[in-house]
Request: fold
Amino acid sequence: MDIEQKQAELIDHFVNQASTLKASALWPLIIEATSHPSLFAFSEILSVPTVSELQGTENSLYLDVLRLFAHGTWTDYKNNAGHLPQLVPDQVLKLKQLTVLTLAEMNKVLPYDQLMQELDVTNVRELEDFLINECMYAGIVRGKLDQLRRCFEVQFAAGRDLRPGQLGNMLQTLSNWLATSDNLLVSIQEKIKWADSMSELDKKHRKDVDDRVEEVKKSLSLKLQTVSRQTLTSEGTRRSTLNLVE
Reply:
């Protein structure tokens, strides 16, 4: 089963579970979802009405935890740890995996020093083991570990949940790209038309040259024929004169 299909099934499972529970009973499910080793998307769970009802209740901290896993990083958690429940080890691992995905969205070459700082990793061996065992083997990223340059070259990274306002920015980016593509297409079409017109002019020029060559050939042929006849006539006259003299 590929990662996308597994994600879809897990999302459906947790969405269905959340839909049947009251808000006050959701916090164990949120811990389970954010600890699950194969779940990396949480926006659908956030959109469940009963989950939204956690806002302003004594369990609203777990809504903040779910938002953290949807959009945040390990650094975000550390900066707000005083206002959030303590994470269990599986949640810590998951949030660090998600942090790698966020970094991979912004850059395709991730320096080891940046990764070690963002993940609270103390040495290169520990970092590389994490990237291999917890990220690449999990199927959420693919890439190359470059020990010489001390960086991770990202070839593929799974996408995270869209942050609030990010969809509008993406639509604007796509709109700008579409406009640029349209302009480029018009330019290409104009160049094709120009190339076609030049091709037609070239064909016409070649035909004119060929016609001129044929005319020259015909003219030369006629001149050669005329010269040949004149030569024959002259030769005949010379022979007649010689006969008379004799």
